[in-house]
Specification:
Oligomer: single chain
Number of helices: 3
Order of helices and strands: HHEEHEE
Distance between the termini: 37 Å
């Protein structure tokens, strides 16, 4: 299994978030999440339901505060050098320029 379709979906999501502004982020999230999306954030953001609530509570303040933000997706191999499985997963990195 190569999961190419799934990888493309994740890349498209991060590409869209990388282009988001405080004015567009709620719409971008709404296009890519279900209406009953349950977002579990860390303190002090906690839990929110739906794209607008997540955008209003986290993304709008974050994008407003962090100008010149760069969001990148860094993929790591799920296998170590011996071929045995090791969970490293994918990581999204957000940095300011």
């Amino acid at each position: 299994m190569s999961f190419q379709a799934e990888k493309a979906l994740v890349r498209a999501h991060y590409d869209a978030l990388a282009k988001a502004t405080p004015e567009t982020v709620a719409g971008i999230l709404a296009e890519r999440t279900s209406d009953d999306w349950h977002w579990r954030g860390m303190h002090p953001f906690y839990e929110h339901h739906g794209a607008k609530a997540v955008a209003d509570s986290f993304w709008v303040p974050f994008l407003t505060a962090m100008t010149d933000l760069s969001i990148t997706l860094r993929a790591t191999s799920p296998l170590n050098h011996e071929g045995a499985g090791s969970i490293q997963g994918n990581c999204a990195a957000m940095t300011t320029i």
